[in-house]
Amino acid sequence: MTCKSGNGDCGCNGADFIELAPVLEKYAKTPGSLITILQKTQDIYGYLSMDAINFISENTGIKPAKIYGVATFYTQFRLKPIGKNLIMLCKGTACHVNGANMIEEAVSEELSIKDGETTEDGLFTLNNVACLGCCSLAPVMMVKNAEGDETFGNLTKESVKEALREIKRKEGAVK
């Protein structure tokens, strides 16, 4: 599925959104389905590009500004690509009390990124989250990638650095 005009007149630069076709076929004409469309788009592409927003606009009749407004209002949506490994660092009460800020500092030291940033090599993105539901493991982080999710609990500055180094080794980024 490409833009209806076929030449990018919709603002999508003629991008190919074939994987989005079933989502739009199912939800484009359903009132109140914008968040579902955005969630599924992000699941497919990893983030919401302006091309995708323009394409959704053309196929739903919702103005791009409204779509962008929804995408920027909800923290679940990303407007930039994320790294191969998404680090979700819990900042909930139990994790906060047990040293989540120290763990964030260790991640920043090891990867040279802060909350919301991606490493230059594209391997890691750090996102602080409200709660991972693993309070008994506090402080905790989850790493999501193509292989699945891995949870790391009872973290210390050294254990989080070692976990990140192990992921780097698996990715071939460190010998």
Please provide a written account of the structure:
The chain contains 7 helices and 4 strands; from the N terminus they run ααααβααβββα. It is of the alpha+beta class. The protein has 2 domains: 1-81, Arc Repressor Mutant, subunit A, CATH 1.10.10; 85-170, 3-Layer(aba) Sandwich (Glutaredoxin), CATH 3.40.30. Strands 2-1-3-4 form a 4-stranded mixed sheet, with helices on one face. Helix 6 (100-111) runs parallel beside helix 7.
Notable characteristics:
single chain; 175 residues; alpha+beta; Arc Repressor Mutant, subunit A; Glutaredoxin; 4-stranded mixed sheet; 7 helices
Reading off the top of the CATH hierarchy, the class of the largest domain is best stated as: Alpha Beta
Strand content: 5-15%
CATH superfamily of the largest domain: Glutaredoxin
Poorly predicted parts: 1-11
Decide which structural class fits the backbone: alpha+beta
Please give the count of helices.
7
Q: Provide the gyration radius in Å.
A: 19 Å
Tell the overall outline.
Answer: elongated
Q: Give me the CATH fold name of the largest domain.
A: Glutaredoxin
In total, how many domains does the architecture comprise?
2
Enumerate the strands of the largest sheet in spatial order, edge to edge or round the barrel.
Answer: 2-1-3-4
Number of strands: 4
Order of SSEs, N→C? HHHHEHHEEEH
Please give the share of residues in helix. 40-55%
| Terminal CA distance | 42 Å
